[in-house]
TrEMBL record:
<protein>
    <submittedName>
        <fullName>Uncharacterized protein</fullName>
    </submittedName>
</protein>
Length: 63
């Protein structure tokens, strides 16, 4: 899979980030919340990212 960084909230590697793939999908890097109380299947996960990241991606016409 080819991954391209679209937008991030900072320049280091441990920040919320959105990536595009050559599969036509997005990958999201962010914190994994544990206090949500939801039933998530074992093959899935939740990732928490700030709204600022989505707003920046939209404002920059990246998504």
């Amino acid at each position: 899979m080819k991954v391209t960084k679209l937008v991030s909230t900072c320049d280091i590697t441990d920040c919320p980030t959105i990536y595009a793939t050559d599969r036509g999908t997005l990958l999201v890097q962010g914190e994994t919340p544990t206090d949500h109380g939801l039933q998530i299947p074992a093959h899935e996960t939740l990732v928490e990212i700030p709204m600022e990241l989505i707003q920046k991606a939209i404002r920059d016409n990246l998504i």
